[in-house]
Amino acid sequence: MCGRLNFIDDLFMRTLMHDLSIANPNEMQFSRFKMPTNDISIVREIDGIRQLKTATWWLLQETSYDGFKPSSFTSFNTRYDKLNQQGSAGYLSYKESRCVVLAKGFGETEKLGGSTKYYDFIAQDSALTLGGLYREWHHPKTGEYRVSCSIITNPPHPDMMQYHSKASPLILPQDSHLLDAWLDKSNHQTDMFSELLKPALRHDFLVQEIQKPSSYNKMGEAVLLRPNDTFFS
Questions:
Q1: Are strands 39-46 and 31-34 parallel, antiparallel or unpaired?
Q2: Which residues, 6 or more positions from 97, have their beta carbon under 8 angstroms from its beta carbon?
Q3: Among candidates 182, 170, 200, which has minimal Cα distance to 43?
Q4: 59-83 pLDDT, tens digit each
Q5: N or C: which end of the chain has fewer CB within 10 A?
Q6: Per-residue pLDDT reduced to its tens digit, 95-141
Q7: Hey, what domains does the chain have and what are their CATH numbers?
Q8: If residue 95 lies in a helix (H) or strand (E), which one and from where to where?
Q9: 124 CB-side CA count, 13 A
Q10: CA dist., res. 167 & res. 110, Å (int)
Q11: Paired strand residues for 168
């Protein structure tokens, strides 16, 4: 996880932006398929105002002669067990630059023997608040300003194992007090988020196997996944 994101424009995405008091909802980059290194919309809170900001989905950037490019170090996801490790890519961002990624769903890939299977997870009657990190970059020659981001990943969720056995996304509870604390740049007390770094899906999902992400040809019937998160309470 998580190599694809889904930003379908629907009532639940619009309602979530309203509930979170996003100041510029019309700047949301809607798309059924976004992959690492693409630009996506993240939610940041600056001076008490929550705004969507376009960010490159790859946390580490390298400076080239006339711009930026994604680092050779894979960084579209940040593992939960690296967040508190000094010197890791996400250490400072976890303390100071947390964001939320609003999404309708995500995609997972599972290799079985010599074959590869692709699955789309679409939230049912809801939209997702994914926990993310961001960094800001300023080019010394051109003056370009860029924002980059990553999605935090947790251990695999038991109910997802048949679809993806390596990790699961950090899906934040849509509790206003928790989201306030998560988006508060001045809040460096990350110990309060330790319970979030356990696998929890928090929503029902329609799971659809697809032939490949770019074409979205369905394979078989979709399955309704009702996760059992009670063992994490």
A1: unpaired
A2: 133, 134, 135, 136, 185
A3: 182
A4: 999 999 889 999 999 999 999 999 9
A5: C
A6: 999 999 999 999 999 988 788 999 999 999 999 999 999 999 999 99
A7: 4-108+127-203 (3.90.1680.10)
A8: helix 91-96
A9: 13
A10: 11
A11: 154
Question: Residue 157 in contact with residue 201, Cβ under 8 Å?
Answer: yes
Strand order across the beta sheet in which 31-34 lies = 31-34, 4-7, 105-112, 115-123, 205-210, 223-225
The reply to whether the predicted model has a pTM over 0.70 is: yes
Q: Please enumerate in sequence order all residues whose Cβ is within 8 A of that of 96, keeping only pairs 6 or more positions apart, or say none.
A: 185, 188
Q: Which residues touch 117 (CB under 8 Å, ≥6 apart)?
A: 109, 110, 111, 163, 209
CA atoms within 13 A on the CB side of 107: 21
Q: Nearest-CA neighbor of 153 among 219, 29, 59?
A: 59
For residue 131, the cross-strand partners are: 100
Q: Which of 232, 161, 188 is nearest to 83 (CA)?
A: 188
- 176-181: long-range contacts, CB 8 A cutoff, minimum separation 24: 179/20, 179/100, 179/129
Q: Give the side-chain half-sphere CA count within 13 A for 36.
A: 21
Q: Residue 52 — φ and ψ, nearest 5°?
A: -75, 140
- What radius of gyration, in Å, describes the C-alpha atoms of the chain? 17
Q: Residue 230 pLDDT more than 70?
A: no
